[in-house]
Amino acid sequence: MPTRLFLGDEALAQGAIDAGLSCAYAYPGTPSTEITEFVQRSPEAQAGSVRGRWTANEKTALEAALGASYAGKRAMASMKHVGLNVAADPFVNAALAGAHGGLLVNVADDPSMHSSQNEQDSRVYTDLALVPCIEPATQQEAYDAPEYGFSLSERMQIPVLVRLVTRLAHSRAPVSVRERRAENDLSPSSDRERFILLPSNARRSYIRLLEKQKDFAKASEASPFNWLADGADRSLGIIACGIAHNYLLEVSGGRSPHPVVKIGQYPLPLEMIERLVAQCREILVLEEGYPYVESHLRGLLTRTSPILRGRLSGALPRTGELSPQAVASALGLPKSSGFPESSAPRGRPPALCPGCPHADTCRALVDALSAFGDRGRVFSDIGCYTLGAFPPYGAIDTCVEMGASITMAKGAADAGLRPAVALIGDSTFAHSGMTGLLDCVNEESDVTIVIVDNSTVAMTGGQKSAAEGRLVSICQGLGLPAERVRVIEPLPARHAENVAVLRDEIAHRGTSVIIARRECLQTLKRTAGHTSGKGGVE
Amino acid sequence: MKRDIILAGVGGQGLLSIAAVIGHAALSLGLDLRQCEVHGMAQRGGVVQSHIRYADGPLYSDLVREGSADLVLSLEPMEALRYLSFLRPDGALVTNSVPVRNIPDYPDLELLHAEIRRLPRHVLVDAAALAEQAGSLQSTNLALLGAAAPFLGLPEAALEASLDAVFAGKSDRIRETNQRAFRLGVATAPA
Q1: pLDDT in tens, A98-156
Q2: Quick check: A532 pLDDT over 50?
């Protein structure tokens, strides 16, 4: 089999293509973005046989994938962990309706929050939706997961969650690839009872879903991603999930002296785990993310179940991603001695690029608000402009989740806060800001919404923004009068006039939108062909 | 044969290109490889790092274990010192001497250089000057790669071939400048 060097994300994408993928949908989000970028760059997508598309948000991505699955094709939706919150409605309900063509939901978790606002563990969602989950440990398993997952999905008529974590998603390793399987033929489902979730149908679907749990468990016991490896030293048994298994092998010289259950598919293979527990006095659980497996095995009786050790017991840190060193410590192995830490390095937070349009908007906004005393607040959102939080700008007061800027500003304005300003990017506005604007327009809420329009999804590397070129007509279409939709060009030379426009609209009692439009310097550089000698792999 | 390397720098310095060249060379020699990168938010002028591991036997972890790095290779002197706990006692630190001062409280450069010079195995090189000499400041990362070449356990010929392969999409002029910068870096290595 030929070998290729792939990021975990790329291995998953190639694996899906080679497993007969037809449609891939996604909203960009670190560390999941490269899955869909890889699909888009593939010869299959270039030739038009595979569809790889950015969507307005993760919910629309998953719904489109469900529709393609309904039509009989193999389809997938990819997102970062917090994207699954946005897509939770279709995720949970697609489990009830079930898949027809193979349906994968690929979710990349970001423990340690390298590029995220939380480190939620997507495995928890499998308890809510009652679906199987594959957690690849290696790039090779990430490649193998789609073929297995699509088959499982079709056999059991269920969406399958594929969970990646940052260190697999963004790490390269050689991967053996197979011949490509043909795509499924178009064969739309005619099963109205299954796909019309009226209560009378849904009750039956729910019973069926519960009955399938036995089959999911059986599949986990026989899964190529799960196994029990024997070990001579039975004083300790180890359960190692996903990439935690790599760290275990690394610090054990390739083979653990203790018996190990390696887990890469859920629901948990209980028979396998019971065989381990029967032969070992003490169990150590190694898992990336939440103490998900440890909590399940322990239940709530933390004081009366002394044989379990893991992230909950304190054997491993409760927060942040695992490391070989953390696993070694949990195993009681000696610390390998490096040099003492240096006290010299200072923090170096990410910053807006020199000349970034957001910087000009942030400066203008701070100046505009200064005319209103210190009572105003700027409710911001997810994107590069969140970096306006850092000095020298200090331009924003909140950043919670995608779309929350406009709606939090509305609620604060309703509560009497004035001025209430929302700062949101063009792509985030398309993702989940438009509905909030509709709420504001309907109630004539006293909020000023600044849409920073750099015409791209910048933070994740410059993907196409879903509302590109149509922000004015979208705002007017949602009911905002034309005179309340202002467009400014954020440039140092226009600072004074931009401040004046912002002050006008902040002073206006009612909803207004100011679109600060200037293209992202990163995408501008790329489209202008000014590629640097440092190579295009940033 | 096994190498555990921490690559360090600031977003935008071309760290991933160094990683790509080393990784390409290791693969071309039939070695197993893991190359862990930073994407996303940190690339906007923040701290970036990459873990690279290669060996003639199987590798398991994508991350280098603390106290196990054979080499810390840094494009920036303060960033070089951020990863000392990863460096094994007989490991080497190779770093660019030129600072990226994009923070208000950047430490005294002389103190940083002095701390680097106290390490038993270190190379402190003005990679920017070498790159300018080669023809473009853009090749600073590859001049530094040259300075680190003796510590990589890979034949220089393999690295040179990988330099051309990784930058195959660029112009001849850029590839030649890259090669010159790399050679100038190699020439600074301690005998």
Answers
A1: 999 999 999 999 999 998 999 999 999 999 999 999 999 999 999 999 999 999 999 99
A2: no
A171 CB within 8 Å of a chain B CB: yes
Does residue A394 sit at the B interface (CB-CB below 8 Å)? no
Query: Do A211 and A164 belong together in one domain?
Result: yes
Residue B191 has pLDDT above 90, yes or no: no
What does residue A96 show for φ and ψ, rounded to 5 degrees?
A: -75, -50
Nearest Cα to A403, choosing from A366, A434, A363, A358? A434
How many domains does chain B contain in total? 1
Q: Is B172 exposed, middle or buried (0-12, 13-18, 19+ CB in 10 A)?
A: exposed
Please give the residue range of the domain that contains residue B86: 2-96+108-187
Show residues of chain A in contact with B17, CB under 8 Å: 534-535, 537
Residue from the list A336, A350, A537 with its beta carbon closest to the beta carbon of B66: A336
Q: What is the dihedral of CA A239, A121, A6, A44, to 10 degrees?
A: 130
pTM listed for this prediction:
0.94
Q: What pLDDT, on the 0 to 100 scale, is given for residue A538?
A: 26
Asked whether residue A120 falls in the same domain as residue A173, the answer is yes
Asked whether the beta carbons of residue A172 and residue B34 sit closer than 8 angstroms, the reply is yes
Closest to A53 (Cα-Cα) out of A82, A22, A84, A89 = A22
Residue A477 banded pLDDT, cuts 50, 70, 90:
very high
Instruction: Classify residue A268: in a domain, yes or no.
Output: yes
- CB-defined contacts A:B, below 8 A: 192
Distance CA B31, CA B173 (A): 31
Within a domain: A352? no
Q: Which two tokens stand for residue A28?
A: 């960009």
Residue A506 has pLDDT above 60, yes or no: yes
Range of the domain at A266: 227-330
Which residues of chain A are within 8 Å of residue B34 when distances are taken between CB atoms? 171-173
- Closest residue on chain B to A28 (Cα): B40
Output DSSP code: residue A184. Answer: P
pLDDT tens for each residue of B88-106: 999 999 999 999 998 999 9
